[in-house]
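If you are new to this repository, start here. Below is one unmodified record pulled from the training split, so you can see the exact layout before writing a loader.
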Amino acid sequence: MSAAADDRAARGGPLLVACALRIEQVALRSAGRGSVRAADPVQAGAHTLLRTGMGPRAAERALRRALDRPGTERAAVLATGFCAGLVPGMSPGDLVVAAETRDPRGTVPCTGTALLAEALARAVPGRTVHTGPLTGSDHVVRGQERAHLRATGAVAVDMESAATLWTAVRGGDRPVAAVRVIVDAPEHELVRIGTVRGGISAFRVLRAVLPAFYEWHRSSLLPRR
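And here is the target side for that same chain:
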């Protein structure tokens, strides 16, 4: 590593990748070099993988504990996993890069959205990458509620990303992002969140995204203009 890269790493922080579900953890762990549980986050090679548990409260608690650990004070935080698409024409396996996350507490702008979308297009060629607002919910969204959320301008919804990024930025100035893989879409609605029959392709996509996350993290260490 060059002296300039060493200096950037010293000024920046590690990459913390947060997901909620065990199946998301399995996909990311099979692609990466290790995993940690929410109770004991430690550095695992190029990133820290934190499984928060399901729902916004669990995500907030787990991330707050993780950022209280030594060495994570300046960590870049990226929320990932599966989501429900809101836009007609979306399909399982499509990717969503959040331009911002939203929940009742407010909006969190994301860092390096365009670069991350480009990196994902290279990492998973042939998959559609959608960019736009990602909204939070405390329950699985179905039917007419999906249309109501779409009318707000959101392109997708999940239960943890907004809470994760809100907690991250309240803990300090740091790069934040959210990348979700669509497992549930308007024309491909799941019966329940644990059903992954229509999400096998989403699982495979999630296994392939880590190189894009690393590229985004490296870019976040560059001096901001």
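Two things worth knowing about this chain: Residues 56-67 form the longest helix (12 residues). The CA atoms of residues 140 and 207 lie 23 Å apart.
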